[in-house]
């Protein structure tokens, strides 16, 4: 075994060693380094050992190429016909890019794609749910019960009391909520259990002193519906609009907004 | 005659759709480009494909060659990029026998298992060991060794091709030779 350890020159002439071996030092550099070699055994030994390595590489090279016919490179057909080789497509380039991308980046890209897809699905579902709630809204029967609960607080509105009694008489045995429960699985199932527990209604009771709101779903006796200047009956939605315009507090506005949505769905 | 024209003139002719000009460029450089690819990839079939792809890529980008560098430097750079791309692809497919990562400098060279003296001559084993040791070099060092030894390029030419300072070329070659020496010393064979 050829022992070449501890041959590091350590004299700062490292870069000159390769230039000297390959004969690529200029005159002055060569003269200076030759002078240094006479006094530096480390550099002399280094050069000898590296020449041995270069000789071994040379042996490999001659073994490969001396008896080896370099394969003829096939010139692209287009080069001889004068037409240009078509550019590779974007898909091909993308495939090429991912072909050389390290596995770690591929994994990261896949994870990011999954996150993005999950985000899109989540946003879509969230949006769809919001639409479902706004379209279906709380069941009319609950609104009526809620309004009933609020009535004692809003005792100064006698007209509403009368309307509520009329509406209670007209309430069918099968409530609209129960009828429509198949189309509203989540909302209806939660609330249908609470029909008899007024304390679990969704909305807060009106604060004392707030102006009473007449529900557009409270049925009025035939012929006693509010009418406009021409004598035509005002539909519930328009009545709500009037009420919403005259709402004083935020709570009222919110409730009216919901009632508006209910009326809209009911009309549909 | 095309053979009397310089590389740059041939490129101009090829850009102007002279069908023979690019063929002359290929004839001039195919052996060196193939040698470069062979030294980089260490496999004949891969080297042939890489050289082929390098010339095709050069042809596709003829119009982008602005004459700021030598045609030979430009071709070498394209070939080196082709080889590095193939190496990366090979690595991602986990087909590589040797790891080309930056940390390979710290790894111990291991002689191939098929190195059986009974089946191969001593010279063949030595060549195999040198070949494996060169393959085990980090890519930036291996490029310089191959360019210097296989293509006999000058330091200045390597500097132009790789777009690195001349001093960096010298120091990298020095480092590469020292690493090769160290790796070959560890082999059980008398390589050097």
Write up what this structure looks like.
The complex is a heterodimer of chains A (about 270) and B (about 190). With about 270 residues, chain A is mostly helical. In chain A, about 60% of the residues lie in helices and about 0% in strands. In chain A, helix 1 packs across helix 3. Chain B is built from eight helices and no strands. The model of chain B is unreliable at about 95-110 (pLDDT under 50). Chain B has two domains: about 1-95, RNA polymerase sigma factor, region 2, helix turn helix motif (Rna Polymerase Sigma Factor, Chain: A), CATH 1.10.1740.10; about 100-190, Winged helix-like DNA-binding domain superfamily/Winged helix DNA-binding domain (Arc Repressor Mutant, subunit A), CATH 1.10.10. Chain B is mostly helical and about 190 residues long. The interface between A and B is large, with 48 and 53 residues.
Radius of gyration of chain B: 18 Å
Major sheet of chain B, described briefly? none
Distance between the termini of chain A: 96 Å
Radius of gyration of chain A: 45 Å
Could you provide a short overview of the structure?
The complex is a heterodimer of chains A (268) and B (192). With 268 residues, chain A is mainly α. Chain A is 60% helix and 0% strand.
Write a concise keyword list for the protein shown above.
heterodimer, A: 268 residues, B: mainly alpha, Rna Polymerase Sigma Factor, Chain: A, Arc Repressor Mutant, subunit A, 64% helix
């Amino acid at each position: 075994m050829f022992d070449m350890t501890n041959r590091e020159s350590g004299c700062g002439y490292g870069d000159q060693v390769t230039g000297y071996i390959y004969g690529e030092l200029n005159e002055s550099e060569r003269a200076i380094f030759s002078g240094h070699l006479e006094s530096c055994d480390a550099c002399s030994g280094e050069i000898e050992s590296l020449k041995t390595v270069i000789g071994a590489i040379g042996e490999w090279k001659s073994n490969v190429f001396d008896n080896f016919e370099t394969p003829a490179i096939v010139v692209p057909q287009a080069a001889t016909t004068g037409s240009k080789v078509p550019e590779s497509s974007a898909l091909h380039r993308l495939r090429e890019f991912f072909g050389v991308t390290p596995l770690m980046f591929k994994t990261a890209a896949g994870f990011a794609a999954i996150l993005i897809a999950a985000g899109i699905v989540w946003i879509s579902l969230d949006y769809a749910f919001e639409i479902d709630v706004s379209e279906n809204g709380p069941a009319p029967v609950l609104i009526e019960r809620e309004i009933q609960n609020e009535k004692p607080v809003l005792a100064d509105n006698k007209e509403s009391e009368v309307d509520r009694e009329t509406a209670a008489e007209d309430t069918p045995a099968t409530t609209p909520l129960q009828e429509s429960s198949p189309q509203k699985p989540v909302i209806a199932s939660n609330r249908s259990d609470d029909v008899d527990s007024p304390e679990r209604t969704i909305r807060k009771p009106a604060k004392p002193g707030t102006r009473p709101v007449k529900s557009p779903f409270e049925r009025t006796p035939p012929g006693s519906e509010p009418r406009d200047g021409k004598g035509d009956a005002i539909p519930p939605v328009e009545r709500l609009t009037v009420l919403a315009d005259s709402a004083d507090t935020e709570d009222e506005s919110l409730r009216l907004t919901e009632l508006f949505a209910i009326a809209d769905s009911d009309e549909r | 005659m095309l053979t009397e024209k310089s590389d740059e003139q041939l490129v101009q002719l090829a850009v102007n759709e002279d069908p023979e000009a690019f063929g002359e460029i290929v004839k001039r450089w195919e052996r060196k480009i193939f040698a470069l690819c062979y030294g980089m990839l260490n496999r004949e079939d891969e080297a042939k494909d890489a050289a082929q792809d390098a010339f095709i890529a050069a042809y596709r980008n003829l119009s982008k060659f602005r004459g700021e560098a030598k045609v030979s430097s430009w071709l070498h750079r394209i070939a080196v990029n082709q080889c590095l791309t193939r190496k990366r692809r090979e690595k991602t497919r986990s087909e590589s026998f040797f790891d080309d990562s930056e940390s390979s400098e710290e790894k111990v060279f291991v002689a191939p298992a098929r190195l059986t003296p009974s089946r191969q001559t001593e010279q063949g084993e030595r060549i195999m060991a040198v070949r494996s040791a060169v393959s085990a070099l980090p890519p930036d060092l291996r490029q310089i060794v191959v360019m210097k030894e296989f293509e006999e390029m000058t330091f200045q030419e390597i500097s132009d091709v790789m777009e690195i300072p001349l001093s960096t070329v010298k120091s990298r070659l020095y480092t590469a030779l020292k690493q090769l020496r160290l790796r070959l010393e560890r082999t059980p064979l008398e390589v050097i």
